[in-house]
Amino acid sequence: MSSASAGGAAPYLAVHCSIAAGVEAMAVQYARELARWGIETSIVMPGLFGELTNPFRDALRPDDTERVVEYEAGPNRGLGDAVRSAGLQLVSNDDVPGAAAGAVAMIVDTPFGERPFRVHVDPAQDGADVAASVMDRIREEMIRRLGFADLLEPHHAEPQASGDGMPPVPSRRPS
Fold it and tell me: What is the mean pLDDT of residues 134-151?
């Protein structure tokens, strides 16, 4: 997952950000769909780190040189280089594998039902943590309005028959 799905996004990173947003939305929906199965998920959202997750290094240098020439001849002259330069200044040289692994280890070590829904690991602080918390709150409210609040937390117990002819629905874990 990438913080680009909800954080500050620079020009020329539309494809990167839209893919990140799609994967993030899919992870959120899967979490809801898996809740009754007793499967708990956590979303880890790394921000900008060194060489591994640096969209500014390559994303602004497309292989389509004809488009580059067109862009450079128009009102966006120099924008790609300026965005690249500014973006590279934001990128931390922190150890992304270590930071992300630490977040995953923390999640794994957390007991079922107490794991965070989302963890941000972002030294650039692009605002994704703020935006994602608002988006999560809006999505949760809609799930409640639809009458499916039980999908907001994974269930811990074995399925129990509902008695109304509907398929069994697992009961919630004890509070």
Answer: 95
